């Protein structure tokens, strides 16, 4: 079984993006529903979605359904996203920085760092759930996320609504800040960049900050 997800697999693939965004930590604050319920406005046929999932994430002889997408951002910078049964794991240069799933850790990238990834096809939306948006960036973030979502078939009419739900889950109350030799950090719970609460990630954050400065 081919485990690698290609750029062609993602292009205009409504089922993939619908399934992927359901993992996000987003919500509709007015109707008090999570992102998975909010996405119902897209009008995806559940039977067809289930058929696509069974084929796309098919289980191999070893009972695994691991898929991944990865590649080079620069000559010496790589990214990897692993899709497993119950989690999605994120790496830069093979250094772990986030997880959607049981061991949830997000709010790693700054908004400006995410924007620097727009030059790479599909990477903006792929890295979006690992991003932390400061309150003053909200309007700009909603507009740019909307611009990306409206290019996905069937998302056009609800892209503005879904972008607001996504941003709700990415907002942080405190600003990112700098610490001496470490670089950019934050005080957000469940963030690898919160080295005060999770000192085990200190060395990883130092290396990741060096990588991100090159983009």
How do the strands and helices of this protein lay out in sequence?
Layout: H1 7-10, H2 14-21, E1 27-28, E2 33-34, H3 35-38, H4 46-56, E3 67-74, E4 77-83, E5 87-92, E6 95-101, H5 111-115, H6 123-127, E7 133-134, H7 138-149, H8 159-170, E8 171-172, E9 177-179, E10 183-185, H9 202-213
Parallel strand pairs: 7-8
Antiparallel strand pairs: 1-2, 3-4, 4-5, 5-6, 9-10
Helix pairs in contact: 7-8
What does this structure look like?
The chain has nine helices and ten strands. It is of the alpha+beta class. The protein has one domain. The strands form four sheets. A four-stranded antiparallel β-sheet has the order 3-4-5-6. Strands 1-2 form a two-stranded antiparallel sheet. Strands 7-8 form a two-stranded parallel ribbon. Helix 7 (138-149) crosses helix 8 (159-170). The radius of gyration is 17 Å and the shape is globular. The protein starts with 6 loop residues before the first helix and ends with a helix.
Question: Quick summary of this structure?
Answer:
This protein is an alpha+beta fold and 215 residues long. Helix content is 34%, strand content 20%. The longest helix is centred in the C-terminal third of the chain and has 12 residues, at 138-149.
Global Rg: 17 Å
The stretches of 5 or more residues where confidence is low (pLDDT under 50) are none
Order of strands across the biggest sheet? 3-4-5-6
The structural domain count equals 1
Question: What is the β-strand count?
Answer: 10
Distance between the termini: 33 Å
Summarize the main sheet.
Answer: 4 strands, antiparallel
């Amino acid at each position: 079984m081919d485990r690698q997800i290609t750029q062609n697999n993602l292009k205009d693939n409504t089922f993939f993006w619908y399934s992927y965004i359901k993992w996000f930590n987003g919500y509709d604050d007015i109707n008090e529903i999570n992102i998975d319920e909010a996405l119902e406005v897209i009008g995806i046929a559940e039977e067809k979605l289930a058929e696509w999932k069974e084929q796309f994430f098919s289980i191999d002889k070893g009972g695994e359904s691991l898929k991944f997408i990865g590649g080079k951002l620069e000559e010496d910078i790589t990214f990897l996203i692993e899709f497993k049964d119950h989690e999605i794991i994120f790496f830069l240069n093979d250094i772990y920085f986030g997880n959607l799933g049981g061991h949830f850790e997000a709010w790693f990238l700054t908004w400006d760092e995410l924007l620097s990834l727009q030059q790479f096809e599909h990477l903006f939306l792929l890295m979006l759930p690992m991003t932390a948006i400061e309150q003053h960036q909200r309007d700009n973030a909603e507009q740019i996320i909307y611009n990306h979502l409206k290019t996905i078939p069937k998302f056009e009419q609800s892209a503005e609504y879904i972008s607001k739900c996504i941003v709700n889950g990415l907002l942080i109350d405190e600003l990112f800040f700098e610490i001496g030799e470490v670089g950019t950090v934050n005080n957000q719970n469940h963030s690898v960049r919160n080295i005060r609460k999770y000192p085990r990630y200190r060395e990883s954050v130092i290396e990741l900050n060096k990588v991100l400065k090159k983009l």
